[in-house]
């Protein structure tokens, strides 16, 4: 009987902890979606012009060495926005941790191949995390109004973080991955990232 009661208490504790975790995820998701509501665009027609765009970096290649669809779609989106006159300069922000791993340098090279001039590009090689990229846009590159370029789920979190720094941010949604498993994995991971974002910047 005592063992059964103890087991019952353990199960109740686990269920309570799970409930608290789910509530935290739900709350963080609500805060991010609320902050980004009406600020993300899927087409270039309605998106307003901004002096500065911020292209958020990601690994150009997958673990198998193939070209990352997330990266490639962001590059295509940035080139399209430039050709349609939606920004005047673009910050390429990402990690540069080794001579053979330099996200901003890769973005610069690929954008130049698509006709974006080098003269309007600014490389930020210390964008190790999204919040670093956002903070540096404000504190290092002195902008308080930006056009974010990434996938929808990422843009929404970045807009939430930008609000913390007093940045008026909008986002253009690059195409998502065509692979279902990749989409599922990244979207699940995003829920955890949103909890972390809310914990870092507080309750906006």
Describe what you observe in this structure.
This protein has 204 residues and is an alpha/beta fold. Helix content is 52%, strand content 19%. The strands form two sheets. Strands 1-8-7-2-3-6 form a six-stranded parallel β-sheet. Helix 1 crosses helix 5. The longest helix is centred in the first third of the chain and has 35 residues, at 2-36. The protein is elongated. The termini are far apart.
| Fraction in helix | 40-55%
Strand order of the largest sheet: 1-8-7-2-3-6
- The termini sit apart by 49 Å
Largest sheet: 6 strands, parallel
How many DSSP helices? 6
Low-confidence stretches: none
Mean pLDDT level? 88
Secondary-structure-derived class: alpha/beta
Please state the overall shape, judged from the principal axes of the Cα atoms. Answer: elongated
Radius of gyration over C-alpha positions, nearest whole angstrom: 19 Å
Q: What is the string of helix and strand elements?
A: HEEHEEEHEHEHEH
Strand content: 15-25%
- Tell how many strands the DSSP assignment holds: 8
Structure summarized in a few sentences:
With 204 residues, the chain is an alpha/beta fold. It has six helices and eight strands; from the N terminus they run αββαβββαβαβαβα. The strands form two sheets. It has a six-stranded parallel sheet. Strands 4-5 form a two-stranded antiparallel sheet.
Topology at a glance:
Elements: H1 2-36, E1 40-41, E2 50-56, H2 69-83, E3 87-93, E4 96-98, E5 101-102, H3 103-113, E6 121-124, H4 130-139, E7 145-151, H5 152-164, E8 168-174, H6 180-201
Parallel strand pairs: 1-8, 2-3, 2-7, 3-6, 7-8
Antiparallel strand pairs: 4-5
Helix pairs in contact: 1-5, 1-6, 5-6
């Amino acid at each position: 009987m005592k063992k059964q009661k103890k087991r019952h208490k353990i199960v109740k504790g686990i269920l309570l902890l799970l409930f608290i975790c789910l509530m935290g995820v739900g709350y963080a998701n609500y805060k991010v979606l609320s902050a980004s509501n009406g600020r993300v665009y899927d087409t270039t027609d309605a998106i307003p012009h901004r002096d500065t765009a911020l292209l958020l970096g990601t690994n150009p290649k997958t673990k198998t060495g193939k070209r990352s669809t997330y990266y490639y779609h962001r590059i295509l989106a940035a080139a399209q926005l430039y050709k349609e006159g939606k920004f005047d300069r673009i910050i390429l922000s990402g990690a540069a941790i080794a001579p053979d791993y330099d996200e901003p340098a890769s973005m610069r090279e690929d954008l130049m191949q698509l006709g974006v001039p080098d003269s309007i590009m600014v490389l930020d090689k210390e964008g190790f995390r999204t919040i670093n990229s956002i903070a540096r846009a404000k504190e290092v590159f002195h902008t308080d109004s930006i056009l974010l370029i990434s996938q929808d789920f990422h843009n929404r979190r970045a807009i939430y973080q930008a609000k913390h720094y007093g940045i008026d941010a909008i986002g253009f949604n690059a195409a998502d991955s065509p692979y279902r498993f990749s989409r599922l994995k990244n979207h699940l991971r995003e829920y955890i990232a949103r909890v972390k974002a809310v914990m870092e910047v507080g309750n906006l």
